[in-house]
Amino acid sequence: MRIDWIGCAAEGNRLDLDMKDASCATVWPVSQVPAWDMESDVVVVGLGVAGGAAAIDAARAGAEVLVLERASGGGGATALAGGLFYFGGGTPIQKACGFEDDKEEMFKYLMMASGKNADEAKVRLYCEENLEHFDWVVGLGVEFKESYHKEKTTLPENDDCLCYSGNELAYPFLSHAKPAPRGHKPKIEGDAGGLLMQKVISAAEEAGAKIVYEAIAETLVTDEQGRVVGLLAFVDRQPKFVRARKGVVLAAGGFVMNKEMVRKHAPELLACNYPIGTDGDDGRGICMGEAAGGAIMNMSQGLLSTPFYPPADHLKGILVNGQGQRFINEDVYHGRSSDAILRQQNGKAYLIVDDSLYGQTQAFHKIVAVEETFEDLEKALEMPEGSLSYTIEFFNKHAAEGEDPLFHKHKSYLRPLSSPPYAALNCSTDKAIFAVFTLGGLDTLPTGEVVRADGSVVPGLFAAGRTTAGLPREGSCYSSGMSIAGASFFGRYAGRTAAQGADAQVR
Amino acid sequence: MRIDWIGCAAEGNRLDLDMKDASCATVWPVSQVPAWDMESDVVVVGLGVAGGAAAIDAARAGAEVLVLERASGGGGATALAGGLFYFGGGTPIQKACGFEDDKEEMFKYLMMASGKNADEAKVRLYCEENLEHFDWVVGLGVEFKESYHKEKTTLPENDDCLCYSGNELAYPFLSHAKPAPRGHKPKIEGDAGGLLMQKVISAAEEAGAKIVYEAIAETLVTDEQGRVVGLLAFVDRQPKFVRARKGVVLAAGGFVMNKEMVRKHAPELLACNYPIGTDGDDGRGICMGEAAGGAIMNMSQGLLSTPFYPPADHLKGILVNGQGQRFINEDVYHGRSSDAILRQQNGKAYLIVDDSLYGQTQAFHKIVAVEETFEDLEKALEMPEGSLSYTIEFFNKHAAEGEDPLFHKHKSYLRPLSSPPYAALNCSTDKAIFAVFTLGGLDTLPTGEVVRADGSVVPGLFAAGRTTAGLPREGSCYSSGMSIAGASFFGRYAGRTAAQGADAQVR
Q1: Which residue from B minimizes the CA distance to A469?
Q2: From the candidates A263, A264, A327, which should be mutated to test the interface with B, based on the most B CB atoms within 10 A?
Q3: pLDDT tens for residues A143-157?
Q4: A chain contacts of residue B287, beta-carbon cutoff 8 Å
Q5: How far apart are CA A54 and CA A499, in angstroms?
Q6: CB contact (8 A) between residue A407 and residue B264
Q7: Tens-digit pLDDT profile for residues B405-441
Q8: Rounded to an integer, what distance in angstroms lies between the CA atom of residue A24 and that of residue A292?
Q9: What's the longest Cα–Cα distance across chain B?
Q10: What is the Cα A480 distance to its own chain's centre?
Q11: How much is the pLDDT for A393?
Q12: Is B405 exposed, middle or buried (0-12, 13-18, 19+ CB in 10 A)?
């Protein structure tokens, strides 16, 4: 079965070429290019934060830069996001708010947060240079307020900047790295991704990058030695050959919108009902790179979430599975508890709160039972006698002593459930909003160069953002801000590396 | 970092070529082939059961067949295996042993057993034609005894044939497909894989296939249109260009022996300490196919196992996690319970048995505590008071009534733990033998043709066995016999499809 990408090859027509053979899963030999319709030193595919950052730094390095964006406006998934950056090691904001942080502690934490597949070279480079990257972001005109948002949330709803945006304060992370708040949100109420992308796009234009909208990259053009020397794109639905003298940077997003790709690589994620991204996150960039010899990796991983807080008081409730058992310290980052629900508890979970803790969540989790006693709650949830009720009694007994011997929830969220009535909110994958985006893609060096399965470089090909396996690589330990931070930081590297390269010798 | 494949390129030398550029992660353009050193209609890479079956059927279809095997003898991982086939729908053995089975019930079961990523077309084709495949295996000289092995085990230790080799009798599978025993072991005591491969290799030779040992395939040779027309191999360490007029069949095993590949695609599996396969399972075949444009899929999946039975009585014990909670019906196939230990319980689990149930396991699980009471066992395992002891009391109470309201273990394995002393066997990934092999690889059609990410065929390229994503695709629902059955069945298809193809037009 052919994957149903949003077809553009079929729409194009040129009398001199048989366009029906164009596919992002193959390459186009340069010998079959009749003439270049456009050209530039560096061609960037995609104008999210990764592509924007690549364009800015490539242009500032003196390269002629052309950005192809398939939508009618730039922004990508970043424009839909909260806009947090993961910065640390002593940023001006951390200092102003009175937090000490240390590069090594940040490194230790980010190695855990990147997951089992962490790329130590990328994590190390990011920690070494992230303060410079902070300055670069500020240099785009992005403001960060000198304010700390204390209440645990998924994103500060006001214009506060600094927050704990991951598992820094939760077991077991807490005991392996000294915590500090490292989530940095640009100064605006609520989501900051749109504002951020306005600044990025303006900066790219100011640096001299030329942006073409409604331009869908379809197929990389390679020479006989396998070097990428350009691409075939559909601009306003017309096929155009675009020469890239120095290189192509793929920054075209992830693949969460391509159900067939998700099935093939990450079938567990099909249970998530709320993919986060734009239509462009259809995996096309990943497939283009793969067709040119690039290796893909980490394709089974994603960040998923059914945010059952705020209200932060919900973290004082308990999460139980279909058997009425607890399974995690509830005070972890929502991505971690949600990952456990899907991957470890077969997608079934309830949040149990008492009357003093309850509030509506942003994901509108449904109350499925409200009862005066634990025993009645257990019955209402059709759990066997002595299952959920014993779980709550056991929890309560230890919580009263400030302890959670089973899962090590932090003292500050520990207190017995004791204000009836008691409610159960359904956090199951088939009953709640379960958001997801992908964390797998092309394998790249920290420089942004795309590599083959044997680690050798595909000449002329670069990538960044969700088209790659970047900084965050596992939903169960992810922190908010890692994607935008990593995508922009390594996007800049990709742009600079491409700009520094020698011109391909093609006609 | 370059992946450390067992290097062969570096060892080869030819005055007319720079061999250092040869890599399984790239292709070799036919224009750079000075001359063909060997040629055949169909070239099969690897002589496990998939390659052997491909060679037999390609040769029987009239093609000239050349098999390249990197080891000094054939057999592959199959020769190390139990040698079960998953056959059903009314085999002669099932009938002789008095079992009714039905093609549709087998199909329903195999769709579940293949996992979330099940390939319906492959499962359907296998169910439709597996009786013919049974005859084909018998035709190789493989005998199946008309005997049923009743006791639940991982593999009949005697020469019995028929057994339940998966989750057919366990919740939730039991309620979705009418169970029948479908594991068929060739007639020999203990492991039958070696015997099976002797028959396969003899049959391949009889059919006229030429086998060359100590021949490592390195790089596929492609023409300008991307068709695979041969390969570069190192035969007795000397580089040889091998023309494949009709096609190359990659049947070179999986990638479990390549730690770097496992890390990139299935990092969870790194926790398993006992990879099952030969040195050849280093992913080379997968990478060769990928370099020629083939898509890879399902790469995160594997079958893993810490077989805590036999003795079958152990299934009457209970598995608990690090918190003393049960998490599964223990009577499932060992691959399913082991998968749950690793992926759902963070790798930590104990089997709790009483004195009447205990026996040594084939994996020599260590006893970490023996106590007279549940409370003392709980203390010995450093679990909080009222955790494990309540779990056992809850289990016992319901087991006495023939019920398992939490996990639906079958009545036949349900009875209270009541004969002290009670023992805990450590089934954790870091303390027990945890076996693993991979279930991801090249994406293929049922015909054996390798496809690109867009579903289009890579001309001249075929694959089967663990080099592909085949019949079984998920360890949590796997049944023994699916790998060898699928590898041989779809290996035959690959061989026949290749044999029927038109010759490539290359010099």
Answers
A1: B264
A2: A264
A3: 999 999 999 888 999
A4: 453-454
A5: 10
A6: no
A7: 999 999 999 999 999 999 999 999 999 999 999 999 9
A8: 10
A9: 80
A10: 8
A11: 98
A12: middle
Instruction: Judge whether residue B494 has pLDDT over 80.
Output: yes
Chain A environment of B455 (Cβ under 8 Å): 1-3
CA A270, distance to chain mean position in Å, is 17
Q: How far is B290 from chain A (nearest CA, A)?
A: 8
Identify the pLDDT of residue A17: 55
Contact list in A for residue B406 (CB cut-off 8 A) is 323, 384, 387
Best residue of B264, B391, B476 to probe chain A, by most A CBs closer than 10 Å? B264
For residue B183 the two structure tokens come to 């594991």
**pTM of the predicted structure, to 2 decimals:** 0.94
A-chain residues within 8 Å CB-CB of B264? Answer: 117, 295, 297-298, 443, 469
pLDDT digits (tens, 9 = 90+) for B16-72: 555 566 789 999 999 999 999 999 999 999 999 999 999 999 999 999 999 999 999
* pLDDT digit string, tens, across residues A35-70: 999 999 999 999 999 999 999 999 999 999 999 999
Write down the pLDDT at residue B505.
Answer: 78
Query: Contact, B50 vs B488, CB < 8 A?
Result: yes
Inter-chain touch B25–A270, beta carbons under 8 Å: no
Residue A464 and residue A487: Cα distance in Å, rounded? Answer: 6
Residue A298 has pLDDT above 80, yes or no: yes
Pairwise CB contact (< 8 Å): B224 & A29: yes
Give contacts of A378 with chain B, Cβ < 8 Å: none
* Nearest partner of B93 among B154, B137, B129, judged by Cα: B137
pLDDT tens per residue across span B148-200: 999 988 999 999 999 999 999 999 999 999 999 999 999 999 999 999 999 99
Q: How many CA atoms lie within 13 A of A45 on its CB side?
A: 38
- CA–CA separation, A147 vs A98, rounded Å? 10
Q: What is the pLDDT of residue B5?
A: 39
Measure in Å the smallest separation between the Cα of A108 and chain B Cα atoms.
19
CA distance B110 to B118: 9
Report the C-alpha gap between A232 and A123 in whole angstroms: 34
* Residue A224 to residues A29, A295, B19, B224, Cα–Cα distance (Å): 7, 19, 18, 9
Strand partners, A65: A42
Nearest CA in chain A to B341: A344
Nearest Cα residue in chain B from A382: B405
The pLDDT-based confidence of A505 (bands split at 50, 70, 90) is confident
Give the mutation candidate from A1, A442, A454 for the B interface (greatest B CB count, under 10 A).
A454
Q: In this structure, are residues B476 and B115 in contact, taking their beta carbons and an 8 Å threshold?
A: yes
Q: Does residue A3 surpass a pLDDT of 70? A: no
Mutation target for A interface from B265, B329, B473: give the one with most A CBs within 10 A. Answer: B265
Enter the tokens of residue A36.
Answer: 């270049």
